[in-house]
Amino acid sequence: MIQPGLTHTSILKVEEQHTAAAIGSGDMQVLATPIMLALMENAAMLAVDQELSEDLTTVGSFIESTHLRPSQLGAEVVATAQLTAVDGRKLSFHVVAMQEDVVIGEGSHTRYIVNRERFLASL
To answer: Most CB contacts within 10 A, which of 67, 80, 84, 93?
Structure first.
């Protein structure tokens, strides 16, 4: 049974394909906000992944975060997710992204546990 407190940290080295200019969310060579959010989601997904059977996964349904500071090419960004609440299939996380010892983004994220086969069949 999944319990609050589970954590995972995902790491990304900022490369050209991660920039706002490359993905079209801006025109500068800095980490794009959508990429930072994806890294946070990845950390949340992996925080609970080992607790689920192979037929189950989680899907993101909500994310809210600040993006406080830019990260340049070559920077290492570390995103950590901590599971804060479990309500049936609904999982709530606190997420934070850091560059060195500076918080560059922080927020909340919600994921739902789904059966892989049924989820894909519903498309």
So the answer is: 93
Coil vs helix vs strand at 39: helix
Nearest 5°: CA angle at 62, between 53 and 67?
Answer: 120
Question: d(Cα 123, Cα 51) in Å, to the nearest integer?
Answer: 26
> DSSP characters for 77-120?
EEEEEEEEEEETTEEEEEEEEEETTEEEEEEEEEEEEEEHHHHH
- Annotation says 33 is catalytic: yes
**Residue 67 known to be catalytic:** yes
Residues 83-107: tens digit of each pLDDT? 999 999 999 999 999 999 999 999 9
User: What residue type is 108 in one-letter code?
Assistant: S
∠98-85-79 over CA atoms, to 5°?
Answer: 15
Burial class (CB in 10 A: 0-12, 13-18, 19+), 109: buried
Give catalytic status of residue 58 as yes or no: no
